[in-house]
Amino acid sequence: MSPALEVHDLTLRFANFVAVNKVSMTVETGSRQAIIGPNGAGKTSLVHALTGAIPSSAGTVSICGIDATRLSQAARVHHGLARTFQINQLFTGLTVLENVLMAILERDGRASIFWRSVAAERVAIDEAKALLELVGLGPQAGARVNALPYGMRRLIEIAIALATRPKVLILDEPAAGVPTTQSEAIFERIAALPRDLTLLFIEHDMNLVFRFAEKITVLVAGEVLTEGPPAAISADERVREVYLGRRGHHAAA
Ligand SMILES: Nc1ncnc2c1ncn2[C@@H]1O[C@H](COP(=O)(O)OP(=O)(O)OP(=O)(O)O)[C@@H](O)[C@H]1O
Ligand SMILES: [Mg+2]
Hints:
Residues 5-246 form the ABC transporter domain. The protein is of the alpha/beta class. It has helices at residues 43-51, 73-78, 96-107, 118-134, 150-162, 180-191, 206-212, 230-234, 237-243, and strands at residues 5-14, 17-27, 32-36, 58-63, 66-67, 81-84, 168-172, 198-202, 215-220, 223-228. It has two domains: 1-80 and 166-253, Rossmann fold; 90-164, no CATH class. A six-stranded mixed β-sheet has the order 6-7-8-3-9-10, sandwiched between helices. The radius of gyration is 18 Å and the shape is globular. The two termini are 37 Å apart. The model has no long low-confidence stretch (mean pLDDT 92).
Protein backbone atom coordinates (compact mmCIF):
# COMPACT_ATOMS: atom_id res chain seq x y z
CA MET A 1 0.00 0.00 0.00
CA SER A 2 1.22 3.52 -0.78
CA PRO A 3 2.06 5.65 2.23
CA ALA A 4 -0.55 8.20 3.31
CA LEU A 5 1.94 10.97 2.60
CA GLU A 6 5.18 10.82 0.72
CA VAL A 7 7.23 13.99 0.58
CA HIS A 8 10.43 14.51 -1.40
CA ASP A 9 12.69 17.55 -1.13
CA LEU A 10 9.75 19.82 -0.41
CA THR A 11 10.82 23.45 -0.29
CA LEU A 12 8.83 26.58 0.53
CA ARG A 13 10.37 30.02 0.10
CA PHE A 14 8.94 33.32 1.27
CA ALA A 15 10.71 35.99 -0.80
CA ASN A 16 14.36 35.36 0.09
CA PHE A 17 13.60 33.28 3.16
CA VAL A 18 13.56 29.48 3.04
CA ALA A 19 10.91 28.34 5.54
CA VAL A 20 10.93 24.68 4.42
CA ASN A 21 14.16 23.35 2.99
CA LYS A 22 14.22 20.07 1.04
CA VAL A 23 12.04 18.17 3.49
CA SER A 24 11.60 14.48 2.73
CA MET A 25 9.37 12.35 4.90
CA THR A 26 6.97 9.43 4.76
CA VAL A 27 3.80 9.06 6.79
CA GLU A 28 2.56 5.47 6.75
CA THR A 29 -1.13 4.74 6.34
CA GLY A 30 -2.91 4.50 9.67
CA SER A 31 0.05 5.81 11.63
CA ARG A 32 0.20 8.63 14.16
CA GLN A 33 3.16 10.81 13.46
CA ALA A 34 4.32 14.05 15.09
CA ILE A 35 6.30 16.98 13.76
CA ILE A 36 8.23 18.77 16.47
CA GLY A 37 10.70 21.62 16.43
CA PRO A 38 11.31 25.02 17.99
CA ASN A 39 9.19 28.11 17.26
CA GLY A 40 9.83 29.26 13.72
CA ALA A 41 11.25 25.88 12.64
CA GLY A 42 8.86 25.84 9.70
CA LYS A 43 6.27 23.33 10.97
CA THR A 44 3.21 25.35 9.98
CA SER A 45 4.89 26.34 6.72
CA LEU A 46 5.44 22.65 5.99
CA VAL A 47 1.73 22.03 6.58
CA HIS A 48 0.89 24.88 4.18
CA ALA A 49 3.11 23.25 1.56
CA LEU A 50 1.67 19.76 2.19
CA THR A 51 -1.93 20.93 1.93
CA GLY A 52 -1.33 23.30 -0.96
CA ALA A 53 -2.48 26.30 1.11
CA ILE A 54 0.71 27.94 -0.17
CA PRO A 55 2.25 26.59 -3.39
CA SER A 56 5.61 24.94 -2.72
CA SER A 57 8.73 26.22 -4.45
CA ALA A 58 10.21 22.79 -5.19
CA GLY A 59 9.84 19.10 -4.36
CA THR A 60 6.91 16.70 -4.47
CA VAL A 61 3.99 15.59 -2.30
CA SER A 62 1.98 12.40 -2.80
CA ILE A 63 -1.27 11.64 -1.01
CA CYS A 64 -2.05 7.92 -0.84
CA GLY A 65 0.06 7.28 -3.92
CA ILE A 66 -1.30 10.18 -5.99
CA ASP A 67 1.08 12.95 -6.98
CA ALA A 68 -0.52 16.04 -5.45
CA THR A 69 2.37 18.45 -6.05
CA ARG A 70 0.50 20.52 -8.58
CA LEU A 71 -2.97 20.10 -7.12
CA SER A 72 -4.89 22.93 -5.50
CA GLN A 73 -5.74 22.80 -1.81
CA ALA A 74 -9.35 21.88 -2.68
CA ALA A 75 -8.19 19.03 -4.93
CA ARG A 76 -5.93 17.71 -2.16
CA VAL A 77 -8.91 17.76 0.22
CA HIS A 78 -10.79 15.79 -2.42
CA HIS A 79 -7.96 13.22 -2.42
CA GLY A 80 -8.32 12.79 1.32
CA LEU A 81 -6.05 15.36 2.97
CA ALA A 82 -7.60 17.55 5.66
CA ARG A 83 -6.11 19.88 8.25
CA THR A 84 -6.91 21.93 11.28
CA PHE A 85 -5.28 25.25 12.10
CA GLN A 86 -3.00 26.47 14.88
CA ILE A 87 -5.52 29.25 15.59
CA ASN A 88 -9.15 28.31 15.59
CA GLN A 89 -11.60 29.46 12.97
CA LEU A 90 -15.13 28.81 14.21
CA PHE A 91 -18.42 30.66 13.96
CA THR A 92 -18.65 31.34 17.69
CA GLY A 93 -22.20 32.72 17.57
CA LEU A 94 -23.55 29.51 16.07
CA THR A 95 -24.10 26.18 17.76
CA VAL A 96 -21.59 23.33 17.68
CA LEU A 97 -23.90 21.34 15.40
CA GLU A 98 -24.38 24.28 13.02
CA ASN A 99 -20.63 24.70 12.65
CA VAL A 100 -20.18 21.06 11.64
CA LEU A 101 -23.33 21.12 9.49
CA MET A 102 -21.95 24.03 7.50
CA ALA A 103 -18.80 22.06 6.78
CA ILE A 104 -20.87 19.12 5.52
CA LEU A 105 -23.03 21.33 3.31
CA GLU A 106 -19.97 23.06 1.96
CA ARG A 107 -18.43 19.70 1.13
CA ASP A 108 -21.58 18.77 -0.74
CA GLY A 109 -21.59 22.10 -2.53
CA ARG A 110 -24.81 23.22 -0.94
CA ALA A 111 -23.59 25.94 1.40
CA SER A 112 -25.37 28.78 -0.33
CA ILE A 113 -28.31 26.83 -1.72
CA PHE A 114 -31.50 26.32 0.20
CA TRP A 115 -31.79 22.70 1.25
CA ARG A 116 -33.62 20.72 -1.36
CA SER A 117 -35.50 18.48 0.96
CA VAL A 118 -36.15 17.83 4.59
CA ALA A 119 -34.77 14.31 4.06
CA ALA A 120 -31.44 15.67 2.81
CA GLU A 121 -31.34 18.02 5.76
CA ARG A 122 -31.93 15.09 8.10
CA VAL A 123 -29.06 13.11 6.58
CA ALA A 124 -26.68 16.04 6.97
CA ILE A 125 -27.73 16.65 10.57
CA ASP A 126 -27.29 12.97 11.43
CA GLU A 127 -23.83 13.01 9.89
CA ALA A 128 -22.88 16.15 11.85
CA LYS A 129 -24.07 14.48 15.05
CA ALA A 130 -22.06 11.35 14.28
CA LEU A 131 -18.92 13.45 13.74
CA LEU A 132 -19.51 15.20 17.04
CA GLU A 133 -19.85 11.81 18.75
CA LEU A 134 -16.48 10.83 17.27
CA VAL A 135 -14.78 13.73 19.04
CA GLY A 136 -16.83 13.29 22.21
CA LEU A 137 -19.00 16.38 21.75
CA GLY A 138 -22.36 14.66 21.28
CA PRO A 139 -23.84 16.23 24.42
CA GLN A 140 -22.67 19.72 23.36
CA ALA A 141 -24.25 19.64 19.86
CA GLY A 142 -26.87 22.25 20.70
CA ALA A 143 -24.59 24.56 22.67
CA ARG A 144 -23.38 27.84 21.26
CA VAL A 145 -19.65 27.69 20.54
CA ASN A 146 -18.87 30.80 22.59
CA ALA A 147 -20.42 29.17 25.65
CA LEU A 148 -17.94 26.28 25.58
CA PRO A 149 -14.47 26.03 27.11
CA TYR A 150 -11.66 26.51 24.64
CA GLY A 151 -10.60 22.85 24.81
CA MET A 152 -13.99 21.74 23.49
CA ARG A 153 -13.86 24.35 20.74
CA ARG A 154 -10.66 22.78 19.49
CA LEU A 155 -12.43 19.44 19.18
CA ILE A 156 -15.13 21.07 17.03
CA GLU A 157 -12.42 21.97 14.53
CA ILE A 158 -11.45 18.34 14.31
CA ALA A 159 -15.08 17.38 13.66
CA ILE A 160 -15.18 20.04 10.91
CA ALA A 161 -12.03 18.65 9.32
CA LEU A 162 -13.53 15.14 9.49
CA ALA A 163 -16.54 16.42 7.54
CA THR A 164 -14.37 16.32 4.41
CA ARG A 165 -14.04 12.53 4.95
CA PRO A 166 -10.24 12.58 5.06
CA LYS A 167 -7.84 9.67 4.88
CA VAL A 168 -5.11 11.86 6.32
CA LEU A 169 -5.66 14.53 8.95
CA ILE A 170 -3.01 17.10 9.79
CA LEU A 171 -3.44 18.79 13.16
CA ASP A 172 -1.44 21.97 13.72
CA GLU A 173 -1.11 22.28 17.50
CA PRO A 174 -4.58 20.90 18.28
CA ALA A 175 -4.19 21.82 21.94
CA ALA A 176 -2.75 25.31 21.40
CA GLY A 177 -4.29 27.90 23.71
CA VAL A 178 -5.80 25.20 25.89
CA PRO A 179 -4.85 24.89 29.57
CA THR A 180 -2.44 21.97 30.10
CA THR A 181 -5.09 20.27 32.21
CA GLN A 182 -7.35 19.99 29.11
CA SER A 183 -4.73 19.26 26.47
CA GLU A 184 -4.35 15.64 27.50
CA ALA A 185 -8.09 15.09 27.10
CA ILE A 186 -7.90 16.54 23.58
CA PHE A 187 -5.11 14.13 22.69
CA GLU A 188 -7.01 11.22 24.14
CA ARG A 189 -9.90 12.08 21.82
CA ILE A 190 -7.53 12.36 18.89
CA ALA A 191 -5.94 9.02 19.75
CA ALA A 192 -9.41 7.42 19.81
CA LEU A 193 -10.21 8.47 16.22
CA PRO A 194 -10.68 5.56 13.77
CA ARG A 195 -7.43 3.62 13.25
CA ASP A 196 -7.60 3.83 9.46
CA LEU A 197 -7.34 7.62 9.66
CA THR A 198 -3.71 8.67 9.33
CA LEU A 199 -2.77 11.45 11.74
CA LEU A 200 0.10 13.91 11.45
CA PHE A 201 0.22 16.39 14.29
CA ILE A 202 2.33 19.30 15.44
CA GLU A 203 2.71 19.65 19.19
CA HIS A 204 5.10 21.46 21.53
CA ASP A 205 4.32 19.51 24.70
CA MET A 206 6.86 16.68 24.67
CA ASN A 207 4.90 14.59 27.17
CA LEU A 208 1.98 14.51 24.74
CA VAL A 209 4.23 13.91 21.74
CA PHE A 210 6.05 10.99 23.33
CA ARG A 211 2.79 9.51 24.54
CA PHE A 212 0.71 9.79 21.37
CA ALA A 213 3.16 9.66 18.47
CA GLU A 214 4.49 6.43 16.99
CA LYS A 215 7.04 8.31 14.92
CA ILE A 216 8.48 11.78 15.35
CA THR A 217 9.97 14.05 12.71
CA VAL A 218 12.18 16.80 14.13
CA LEU A 219 12.24 19.98 12.08
CA VAL A 220 14.92 22.58 12.70
CA ALA A 221 15.50 25.69 10.61
CA GLY A 222 13.24 24.35 7.88
CA GLU A 223 15.06 21.02 7.61
CA VAL A 224 14.50 17.53 8.96
CA LEU A 225 17.11 17.08 11.70
CA THR A 226 16.14 13.48 12.36
CA GLU A 227 13.12 11.21 12.66
CA GLY A 228 12.27 8.00 14.43
CA PRO A 229 10.29 6.34 17.20
CA PRO A 230 9.81 8.31 20.45
CA ALA A 231 12.48 6.37 22.35
CA ALA A 232 15.14 7.15 19.76
CA ILE A 233 14.15 10.81 19.53
CA SER A 234 14.14 11.37 23.30
CA ALA A 235 17.59 9.79 23.53
CA ASP A 236 19.00 11.88 20.67
CA GLU A 237 21.60 14.39 21.85
CA ARG A 238 21.01 16.65 18.83
CA VAL A 239 17.32 16.93 19.65
CA ARG A 240 18.10 17.87 23.25
CA GLU A 241 20.52 20.49 22.00
CA VAL A 242 17.80 22.05 19.86
CA TYR A 243 15.51 22.36 22.83
CA LEU A 244 18.24 23.95 24.90
CA GLY A 245 18.26 26.67 22.26
CA ARG A 246 21.71 26.23 20.80
CA ARG A 247 20.33 25.40 17.40
CA GLY A 248 17.14 26.10 15.57
CA HIS A 249 17.84 29.49 14.07
CA HIS A 250 17.20 29.95 10.40
CA ALA A 251 19.82 30.82 7.86
CA ALA A 252 18.80 33.30 5.17
CA ALA A 253 18.45 31.96 1.64
N1 LIG B 1 3.87 34.34 5.01
C1 LIG B 1 5.15 34.41 5.43
N2 LIG B 1 6.03 35.28 4.88
C2 LIG B 1 7.30 35.33 5.30
N3 LIG B 1 7.82 34.56 6.27
C3 LIG B 1 6.99 33.69 6.86
C4 LIG B 1 5.62 33.56 6.49
N4 LIG B 1 5.05 32.60 7.26
C5 LIG B 1 6.01 32.16 8.09
N5 LIG B 1 7.18 32.81 7.85
C6 LIG B 1 8.44 32.57 8.54
O1 LIG B 1 8.81 31.24 8.32
C7 LIG B 1 9.41 30.70 9.51
C8 LIG B 1 8.70 29.46 9.92
O2 LIG B 1 7.41 29.81 10.39
P1 LIG B 1 6.35 28.72 10.82
O3 LIG B 1 5.12 29.45 11.20
O4 LIG B 1 6.25 27.71 9.75
O5 LIG B 1 7.06 28.10 12.08
P2 LIG B 1 6.51 27.03 13.14
O6 LIG B 1 7.51 25.95 13.23
O7 LIG B 1 5.12 26.67 12.80
O8 LIG B 1 6.55 27.89 14.49
P3 LIG B 1 5.57 27.84 15.78
O9 LIG B 1 6.05 26.67 16.61
O10 LIG B 1 5.83 29.13 16.46
O11 LIG B 1 4.17 27.69 15.31
C9 LIG B 1 9.35 31.80 10.57
O12 LIG B 1 10.60 32.44 10.62
C10 LIG B 1 8.30 32.74 10.04
O13 LIG B 1 8.57 34.07 10.43
MG1 LIG C 1 3.29 26.83 13.72
